[in-house]
Amino acid sequence: MLESAAPALFSAFVWWFSTGIVLYLDGLPQHTFRWSVLGSAVLMGVGFLGLYNVADDQTAAGAYAGFFYAMLIWGWLELSYYTGFVTGPRKIACEPGCSGWRHFGHALESSLYHEAAIVIALLIVFALTWEQPNRVGLWTLLLVFCMHESARLNVFLGVRNLNADWLPPHLSYLRGFLRKRSMNPLFPISIAIGTTVTVLLIRAALANETGSFEAVSMTLLATLSGLAMFEHCLMILPLPTNWMWRWGLGERDLLRPDPPAVR
Q1: With contact defined as beta carbons under 8 Å apart, do 29 and 250 qualify?
Q2: Considering the domain boundaries, does residue 172 fall inside one?
Q3: What is the pTM of this model?
Q4: Is residue 191 a contact partner of residue 229, using CB atoms and an 8 Å limit?
Q5: Nearest to residue 66, comparing CAs of 48, 79, 39, 80?
């Protein structure tokens, strides 16, 4: 039983802890940001090297390693964005009345460099694992990227819980690209696709021998996908969303309330 649950527990812990660390470092004084980003860049380098070294490892340990190394890479991508080092060419809020595709274009400009960095990271991981049996790192990074883009589009279109309090002061202009609504047309599609992916991954995990490379890989990915769906659900449920990372957020949620609701 423990052997079956271990990959799920590992995936959940890495997801929870890495998110909290990024939030904590982002809440420190700005003069610490360069050291945080530099330190995470070193870890990202470890992630790339690690993925290359385990690309031919089809053991359970290799699956765990591939997943962990991919999350190290994602950690730098997230931290570099929230510290403001890699965002986009637009660093101001939209003028009142800006809407539609023009508003969407401005939102894209605000994170264009970050999106490009993610694509570059994916291409590097793709090259490092080309024609290799262990591509857990690539699937992990691709899964996180897709769920991240889904979440970003949903908060742009409108959800109940925006988590705008997670944004540090130097990114306050991004609040203008968040919309508070009870629901948006994309949300059910996101849930349907994400749930289908999660179910397929669970079925693939159960179809393989417990503790095997395939079972561990699919369980790690299924748990991550399920947690992403859980995060999506927290966007619309009338529940507090900061309790899981209170230790990383500190008092930021008390200082910056969410934008008013737009019906």
Answers
A1: no
A2: yes
A3: 0.90
A4: yes
A5: 48
